[in-house]
Amino acid sequence: MRRPLQYLALLGYVIFLAFPLVWLLSTALKTSQEMASLTPTWIPRHPILTNFTDAFAEQDLVGSALRSLVVAVASSVLTVVLALPAAYAMARHRSLVSRLAVGWVLVSQVFPFILIIIPLFMVLRRLDLVNTLPGLTIVHVTFVLPFALWMLQGYVRAVPRELEEAAAVDGAGRVRSLVKVVAPLLAPGVVATSLFAFISSWNEFLFALVVLKDPGVATLPLTLVKFTGAEGVVRLGPLAAASLLATIPSLVFFAIIQRRLRSGLMTGAVKG
Amino acid sequence: MTLTAERARRPSTDRPRRGTKGRQGRETLILMLPALVPVLVFSVGPLLYGIFLAFTDARSGRNAVTSFVGLSNFGDLLTDGDFWASFRIGLIWAVSVTVLQFLASLGLALLLNENLRFRSFARVLVLVPWAMPPVVIGLMWRLVYHPNAGILNSVLQQLGVIGHNVDWLNDFSIALPAIIVVGIWTGMPQTTVVLLAGLQTVPKELYEAGHMDGATTLRRFWSITLPQLRPVIVTITSLDFVWNINQFGLVYVLTQGGPGGQTRLPMLFAYEEAFRYGFFGYAATLGVAFVIVVLAVLGLYIGRQLREAN
């Protein structure tokens, strides 16, 4: 008696979670004539892939996807370069700074973005970085850094200190032991952290909205939103296709790191 | 800025045990510096300056003269009808999304904790909204809710629930419930994952003991699962509440705060004040007021939970 009910409930959840996704996919495969018809159907009558090629033909979309890519790659590289030494220090020497960094991760959750974004906008304006990709990159790096630090120092902690000591006994210098012993063991953590930074930047909308006022430098999320506002029903197909394409990088990278993220969130939740 | 001072003082006083510790403190500082500078310059600093702005009449213009106005922004805020309307909408939104999302996620987590078939499929599916760009989630649901081309109207008409197409996101009374559903959908992954992990830490022996004592399923859930999960529940619902009350991007994409301000969450209100009308000081005041509200709500909630736990 219980099992069937449980399966029924599970089916309900699966439908609730999946139906918007299925609809997005279905819309992306429909012709503009079908979109304009008054009786929408789940399965496209004449499935087409031209919406995807149309999306690629759209100058704005391709340009903004490239800009998003530049910002996301720059953010993830910078984040790791800045965070790695600090994460090492935090993990190896317990200090006030590491506790403050963890505290900042929590505090920054409570403060509404508006309190930070107005003065940040003023700072960027003074530095002439408004409407520039470096400006947005700086913002993205700053906001992913605390969490990246937290992630990375967990990985450093997992590398046994004895390995470094053994290397020292064998006559390896400090730098040599870091490069030869610690770095290879840290590689998966570095990859996970940079992928996380990439996803955060690639998906980010609000800071981009404030920092990039000029449509000529818009990132992908900004262009997607503009695209919906201006176009009628006919253009919904390419929009859905573009949305799907925009999701792919995040989805793939997320699939790679989700196990680590889940455990990270869990430790945070239990400790808090 | 107090952070810098504390940081500089700390290493020398904190390490009396060994001579090498002083050097170690310096090394730590040098290693931390590349990460600390951007965080201090671009987020701690601006945050403090933002709090200061709340007490000024700052405007957006490059050459606007800013002067200190004390608490007058707070006075304006308290008598601003638009703010209170937005505040009310924000509370309805944050409380309903947090509560409903928690109940839905708890149900799903309990199911995923059972030995059901297709469980791993559902586990993967539930993570998808987590990875999607919020903008795409918003666009996707706009397609679902589309008055003519949307699937929701079509399905509900076929089922005979509604007689004519509903314009979900532009109807004065339906828009807010409609975006609340999207909020629940979007936030379910984190909540479910955390609750599921919490469920897996509940010792099996407790259930066995409960079983021996003849406790029913419901009774075991009520007397074993819930109390054991309490710390996890308090943490995740608090976080969800904070995230939800500060929500911006998703609703900006869905409705831009419309129709007629019916879904104008507080952060959309603040964004408009700051970047459409240029009232930087006033928007910052709203931010400060919100920190106070959020801390008060969390304080009351967590305090009560702690008292009940004892």
Describe the structure.
The complex is a heterodimer of chains A (272) and B (310). Chain A has 272 residues and is an all-alpha fold. Chain A has 12 helices and no strands. In chain A, 81% of the residues lie in helices and 0% in strands. The longest helix of chain A is centred in the last third of the chain and has 36 residues, at 236-271. Chain A starts with a helix and ends with a helix. Chain B has helices spanning 2-14, 20-53, 72-78, 81-113, 119-125, 128-131, 134-145, 151-158, 175-200, 204-212, 217-245, 249-254, 266-276, 280-309. Chain B starts with a helix and ends with a helix. Chain B contains 14 helices and no strands. In chain B, helix 11 (217-245) packs antiparallel against helix 14 (280-309). The longest helix of chain B is centred in the first third of the chain and has 34 residues, at 20-53. The chains are: A mainly alpha (272), B mainly alpha (310). At the A-B interface, helix 1, helix 4, helix 5, helix 6 and helix 7 of A face helix 1, helix 2, helix 4, helix 5 and helix 6 of B.
Summed up:
Helix content of chain A is about 80%, strand content about 0%.
What are the defining features of this structure?
heterodimer; A: 272 residues; mainly alpha; MetI-like fold; 81% helix; B: 310 residues; 2 domains; 0% strand; globular
Question: What would CATH call the homologous superfamily of the largest domain in chain B?
Answer: MetI-like
Low-confidence stretches of chain B: 1-18
Largest contact between chains: A-B, 94 and 108 residues
Give the C-level CATH assignment of the domain at 62-213 and 247-271 in chain A: Mainly Alpha
Unreliable runs of chain A: 268-272
Spatial shape of chain B: globular
Enter the CATH topology name of the largest domain in chain B.
Answer: MetI-like fold
Query: What string, H for helix and E for strand, traces the elements of chain B in order?
Result: HHHHHHHHHHHHHH
Number of strands of chain A: 0
